[in-house]
Design brief:
Helix content is about 85%, strand content about 0%. It is mainly alpha-helical. It has one domain. The chain is rod-shaped. The two termini are about 35 Å apart.
């Protein structure tokens, strides 16, 4: 197999992997936003809202979950 074909295949796989991770991240971020809106409507802005944000974003930003 030619080296350029291998490089093209590897780079395409890396792009697909990164794109899927991006889509999953955006979905989790949207869910967090909706949950935070519901929490704010029900309880107002409180310490639990901040803890929800910190706990869930920490999981989102870690690459190897």
């Amino acid at each position: 197999m030619d080296l350029s074909v291998v490089v093209a295949l590897v780079s395409t796989c890396a792009f697909v992997f990164t794109f899927i991770r991006h889509i999953l991240f955006k979905r989790e971020l949207f869910k967090l936003k909706q949950d935070m809106k519901q929490h704010t409507l029900k309880h107002g802005v409180d310490n639990q809202l901040w803890l929800m944000f910190v706990d869930r974003t920490r999981g989102m930003f870690s690459f190897w979950r």
